Amino acid sequence: MLGTKYVRSRLDRVGSREPLLNRIDISDRTLKWLFLLPSVAILAFLAIYPFIQGIWMSFHEWPLAADTRTWVGLANYEALVESERFLGSARATVVFTGVSVTLELILGVALALYLRSLTGNWRPIFRTIFILPMVMTPIATGLMWRLLLNGQIGVVNWMIINFLGMTPPSWTSSPTVAMATVIMIDIWQWTPLIVMIVYAGLLSIPETMYEAARVDGAPKLAVFRHITLPQIKYMIGIAVVFRLMRSFRSFDIIWLVTNGGPGTATEILNIYLYRVAFVNLQGGEAAALGIILLVVTIAITMGIIRGLGMQ
Amino acid sequence: MSTRNLPDIGSAVTFATENPRAALATAIKYGAGIIVAIWMLFPIYWMVTVSIQPQEVIMNWPPRFLFFTPVLEHYVTLFTEQNFGRYLFNSFVVAAGAVLISVIIGVPAAYSLSRMDVYGGHHIGFWILSTRMIPPLSIMVPLFIFFSDVGLDRSLLGLMIVHFLITLPMIIWIVKGFIDELPQSLEESAMVDGCNRIQAFREIVVPLVMPGIAAAGFISFIFSWNNFLLALVLTGGDTRTAPLVIQSSMGYLSINWGMLGAAGTVTVLPVVLISLALRNHLVEGLTMGAVKQ
């Protein structure tokens, strides 16, 4: 994907130096595959085998608790598309991913610009602070926020009552608020990643471009739109790809904080898939759902990668 | 909020006294920064704080933010009654094992992709990267059946094998990035001097990219350590990992917050230490080498 042109040109250069490599040509040919084989074999077992087996399973009624399996053709897919719960979880996924990634992007770019405008010792201090949330074990993140938002001992409720004089919302018991809560936690954890990626892009903009704009007296908004934004477009693309990829498979925080509830309000596809597979033990339907999730995730991320011309 | 109009932000304070508007701008700027910093740090601070507060301080309002007598009773309970050390050890065995084996088989693969003209190497590399895009649950259903059939469910070995999906692509891509940046002339001159390819790889390339290998190893260790979902599907009872135990102690009606705070603190501690040590490579690692710093 990235930098492969560079790698290619390197590889071509090796080829053009035939005289030098001639002596060990034969062992090289075997060696390059020997070097690759273990990794490719393991990843094939972990990624290709289950994918093919998953497609096969999805055409069956395949209860995980019993040894029976019945060919049902596309019935699992049809049942899913018609099921209200599947459509609900698809909607929840769109809302969760759409809102959280959009807000993270806006906030992340703003904070990256902020970070760049800092001077002296402030930059490394803030950089260190931004590193912490994104490396937190997601289960610990969920734990922290459940502690903060707890109805009896939660500090956030105490602050809202005492500092703002308002009634705190019931964080996880109303459908809309519960969705907002898990989105808020997701933003807390993942905005820093976008900050760091965009910040790396900002650092690569030559200072001379800004100086030229300043000499010309360009307004700040114009500087951002015509100098900064085009230069960090690529980094924003990378950030979006990585966030989308991970957002579709969000599980830990939602599982811990709302458990998909109340009802099925925060049950995104990944959570629904877990329930179908390992609570209801419907292997065939779970496999069909897994294939849908996989195809959608790959299609969207590849679409963005192609769209940005990153490959 | 931007300070582009200030000649030198370092002297913003002296400048501010001359110009009230600039003073306000500076105040807003640093005020906003402090609010963001508190927002980022307070949840972590509070978890650690609760873990060293006596039970009656935790359960009573108003919350004590700074002044209380710290106690270690929650940590003692955690490691004696709850036997949390065992689950931390499980997490460690799985993550360390997956990382170690991934380094051993992934570094040669990275070298092969970077240096040797592999037919379709570009596609193989991209395919390896794309395995990271797969939602884990969509492949866990068939893998779970397979692992149950061969008796690897509820075992740390089974979990470690699945964790290769996290560690292996990461290590291959990050290390490949480091090898790409290494001048090829070093190996070439070694080979002119009579080294064969394997010697050049082992004695020239590996030592030179060792910092990169270490960074890749530690970053993938974080991801493996933090993982919850794969352990949820594949382990139970004594083979549970630390995040799984935290999750299962939260289901009950009366939650022991002090002890959970302690569990959360010891679980994130290694991750925090590693990422602070690696802060200059972290983003590169998190984006599989797509972002260079």
TrEMBL record, chain A:
<feature type="transmembrane region" description="Helical">
    <location>
        <begin position="124"/>
        <end position="141"/>
    </location>
</feature>
<protein>
    <submittedName>
        <fullName>Carbohydrate ABC transporter permease</fullName>
    </submittedName>
</protein>
<keyword id="KW-1133">Transmembrane helix</keyword>
<feature type="transmembrane region" description="Helical">
    <location>
        <begin position="254"/>
        <end position="274"/>
    </location>
</feature>
<feature type="transmembrane region" description="Helical">
    <location>
        <begin position="286"/>
        <end position="305"/>
    </location>
</feature>
<dbReference type="InterPro" id="IPR000515">
    <property type="entry name" value="MetI-like"/>
</dbReference>
<keyword id="KW-0812">Transmembrane</keyword>
<feature type="domain" description="ABC transmembrane type-1">
    <location>
        <begin position="90"/>
        <end position="304"/>
    </location>
</feature>
<dbReference type="GO" id="GO:0005886">
    <property type="term" value="C:plasma membrane"/>
</dbReference>
<feature type="transmembrane region" description="Helical">
    <location>
        <begin position="177"/>
        <end position="202"/>
    </location>
</feature>
<comment type="similarity">
    <text>Belongs to the binding-protein-dependent transport system permease family.</text>
</comment>
<dbReference type="InterPro" id="IPR035906">
    <property type="entry name" value="MetI-like_sf"/>
</dbReference>
<feature type="transmembrane region" description="Helical">
    <location>
        <begin position="33"/>
        <end position="52"/>
    </location>
</feature>
<dbReference type="InterPro" id="IPR052730">
    <property type="entry name" value="Sugar_ABC_transporter"/>
</dbReference>
<keyword id="KW-0813">Transport</keyword>
<feature type="transmembrane region" description="Helical">
    <location>
        <begin position="94"/>
        <end position="115"/>
    </location>
</feature>
<keyword id="KW-0472">Membrane</keyword>
<dbReference type="Pfam" id="PF00528">
    <property type="entry name" value="BPD_transp_1"/>
</dbReference>
From TrEMBL, chain B:
<keyword id="KW-0813">Transport</keyword>
<feature type="transmembrane region" description="Helical">
    <location>
        <begin position="124"/>
        <end position="147"/>
    </location>
</feature>
<protein>
    <submittedName>
        <fullName>Carbohydrate ABC transporter permease</fullName>
    </submittedName>
</protein>
<dbReference type="GO" id="GO:0005886">
    <property type="term" value="C:plasma membrane"/>
</dbReference>
<keyword id="KW-1133">Transmembrane helix</keyword>
<feature type="transmembrane region" description="Helical">
    <location>
        <begin position="257"/>
        <end position="278"/>
    </location>
</feature>
<keyword id="KW-0472">Membrane</keyword>
<feature type="domain" description="ABC transmembrane type-1">
    <location>
        <begin position="88"/>
        <end position="278"/>
    </location>
</feature>
<comment type="similarity">
    <text>Belongs to the binding-protein-dependent transport system permease family.</text>
</comment>
<dbReference type="InterPro" id="IPR035906">
    <property type="entry name" value="MetI-like_sf"/>
</dbReference>
<feature type="transmembrane region" description="Helical">
    <location>
        <begin position="200"/>
        <end position="225"/>
    </location>
</feature>
<dbReference type="Pfam" id="PF00528">
    <property type="entry name" value="BPD_transp_1"/>
</dbReference>
<keyword id="KW-1003">Cell membrane</keyword>
<dbReference type="InterPro" id="IPR000515">
    <property type="entry name" value="MetI-like"/>
</dbReference>
<keyword id="KW-0812">Transmembrane</keyword>
<dbReference type="InterPro" id="IPR050901">
    <property type="entry name" value="BP-dep_ABC_trans_perm"/>
</dbReference>
<feature type="transmembrane region" description="Helical">
    <location>
        <begin position="87"/>
        <end position="112"/>
    </location>
</feature>
<feature type="transmembrane region" description="Helical">
    <location>
        <begin position="159"/>
        <end position="179"/>
    </location>
</feature>
<feature type="transmembrane region" description="Helical">
    <location>
        <begin position="30"/>
        <end position="48"/>
    </location>
</feature>
